[in-house]
Each structure stands twice: as C-alpha cells, then as structure tokens.
Amino acid sequence: MHVDDQRGKWGDTDSPDWLRYFGLHAADLTDDGMKDIVSGRYFYRNPGGDLTGKWQRVDFGRNVDAILCVDVDGDEFGDVIAQALPDVWWIEAKDRQGSQWTFKKIGNVPETTHVNSQGFGLGQIIGGGKPEVVLAGEDGVHYFEIPANPDDDACPRTHITTEAYDEGLDIADMDADGNLDLIAGNGEEYVAWWKNPGTGKGDWQRYIFGTTHPHPADRIKGMPGVPSPTISDVKADWSLSGTLPLEKA
Known about the structure:
Elements (H helix, E strand, L loop, with lengths): L24 E3 L8 E4 L2 E4 L10 E4 L5 E5 L9 E6 L2 E7 L7 E8 L11 E4 L8 E6 L2 E5 L12 E5 L7 E4 L8 E6 L3 E6 L9 E6 L10 E2 L8 H6 L5 E2 L6
Antiparallel strand pairs: 1-2, 2-3, 3-4, 5-6, 6-7, 7-8, 9-10, 10-11, 11-12, 13-14, 14-15, 15-16, 17-18
Protein name: FG-GAP repeat protein
Organism: Novipirellula artificiosorum
InterPro entries: Integrin_alpha_N (IPR028994)
C-alpha cells in the first residue's frame, strides 16, 4: 500500500534544510470506522475498501510535525497533537472529513538537536481522565495533561526527568503497580526506566538497565502481551520488557 510519494519535508519550509518529519500515527479521525494517517504537516483520509484507492492528502496549513492522535475535547471532530518545537500544538478538524484544521498552542518543550523530538507517546500517566501526552525535549521528558475544558483551560506540564535523551521512548508498567512508567535512553550512556510515583509529580526515580556504548540508543519499544516484570526481574533481564535498536553513524 503506497500512501504518498510526493510529500515534502520540514526543511522545505524551515531550517535546517535537510530535516525530515518524525511523526506518524494512525487513528479514525473522520468517525467512519477506518483509520486515517497523520504525518508531518499532512492528514491522509482513508479511502476505505481494500485501501488501494487514493489517500486524499490535506495540508494542515503550516509547517508542523503531527505526532499523535487523541480525542482532546470529546466532540465529533478529529484531534491531533503536533510539534514545531519549542511550540506544541493541538490541531482540530473543522469538519468531519478533516478538510480544514484549527490550531491552539498547548505548551512548550525546548528544541532538540534535530529541532523537533523523536521521542513521544500517549499513556494514562495519571489515573482517570484523558491520556497524557509524553514528549521529549532538549531538557529531558515531559508530559502534558489534557484538561476537562481544553478550549479554555491550560494543559499542565510535568517534567518527568532531565536525564533522558530526545530520541525514542515508551510508556509501560515496569513494576506491575498499575502505573505507567517511562522507558528511555540517554545517548550511549545508558537505557533506563523511570518509576511513576502515582502522585502526579515529576522527577521520577531512575533505574538503569545498562549501556549501549559505543552506539546511542535510538528507538525503544515495549512488547505488548509480555507480562510486566518486577523490579528484580528487570535488573536481571530487561529484555523481558522491550526491544532496542541502536543508532550507528
């Protein structure tokens, strides 16, 4: 299935000129039961059927990198989280087909060495309510809460850690306590997980798995269906809980 071979890149509009988009997420944004795609500054409408038809592309109208889909305000229109760091945006469709979109800035995260972040995800960090938006920046990893009234209220931001890199991350319950924890790396120094205290506060405690020297950890992904290990299990064999590619120069 070929969706788009004519898409632009971040560097076509903003510096650096070599930079591409990092975001890619699939979700039903048109309420037709079929998953659409967002990536970079584009929304792709699912053609239905056997998916071989034309995926109509809609430009969001500004240079952003769409990274996540989440129902922000509970209405029938699609919602997308996008980055153009240091700015983080909530983008909402103006119609059921996603033909036009509106923008609301929800917060800031410091620019990374690649301008935008390669580490992001959704997870129920705080019990109840909507899932939190987790996003890495130059100063570590943050999460944003989606308020009950997002049109009027701010999205509170909590700083999980300053000790993680702005590459891949994942969210999983590492110690089987019912709270989703953070898994991330710090260049080639180490791969670790940070324990969610369950209090809504930041500065989570870190547990180091080991080092990936001489190569920096790149993408980190949990393994759905694998039972969550205990802390002692993790220290003994962290391969129970995730997969880890390395980035080589």
